[in-house]
Amino acid sequence: MTLALVGALTSAAFTLLVVSPRVLRQARWQVRRPALALALWHVALVLGMMLMGGAMVLSVGAAVSVSTRSAEPWGEQVAISLLGWITAIAFSGLVTVISVALERVLGAQRHNRSTLLSLPHHAEQVGGTLVLECETDEPIACAIPVSGGIVVISTGLKALLNPAQVGAVIAHESAHLRWGHLLATRLADLHLACLPRAEVARQLHRTTRLSIELIADDDAARHAGAVNLSNALIRLGVYQNDDTLTLRAERIAARYGNRGRRTLAVRCASMTR
């Protein structure tokens, strides 16, 4: 009975962790519904890990229990004990891998944050959000979820974009804070750090990064205007030679009506001259 239950939990975990990502990545609706896509990917990961953890705990518990009684058939006792010991060793190794990967992920984030905040800057409140403007020629914008949330932009960003476009970028970064995207990003980073060669981990990482950007794009388009956000993404895409930003701009323009598409087309034409 115990072995059957462990097998059922393991099979369910395998389905969620391995099979469901293969199904989800084929879904074309993810660009239209990024919040739902993000939720499904991470629910599958977390629930799969919980089921796997439950199977491990059950295996170890059964091994401890069977060692104290002899009612079970000899063959089943040996199988349960062996499975329990193997599971205990695997669990110890898993905890070690996760701990090392977590420290690496958090260490990299702390380093990037301290490097950015060490630049000369001044602060101001923009729409209830604390915005730090750092003095660097590179166009930078990011959200830092500390002290109630901080958005960091650079003087280079303000030189590249007009005020309305800068406002759209700030709205985009504020959306990351409001939606709590750091947790999803850390989970995807940790998963990839633990399984760097696994296609499932790489796919989850890519999907998470794209989904949170699309969610923030939609939020910023509603609060700061689709035209302003689209044009900001285009300018940044041209400056950074990043086609992904241009595709995001086209998505916003198409999603929020003909006016956005017409304005985007005019802006694109003017920037290619």
TrEMBL record:
It holds the Pfam family Peptidase_M48. CDD domains: M56_BlaR1_MecR1_like. Keywords: Hydrolase, Membrane, Metal-binding, Metalloprotease, Protease, Transmembrane, Transmembrane helix, Zinc. The chain crosses the membrane at residues 41-66, 78-102. Residues 144-193 form the Peptidase M48 domain. GO terms for biological process: proteolysis. The keyword Heme does not apply. GO terms for molecular function: metal ion binding; metalloendopeptidase activity. Its cofactor is Zn(2+). InterPro entries: Peptidase_M48. Binds 1 zinc ion per subunit. The keyword RNA-binding does not apply. Belongs to the peptidase M48 family. This is M56 family metallopeptidase. It comes from Microcella pacifica.
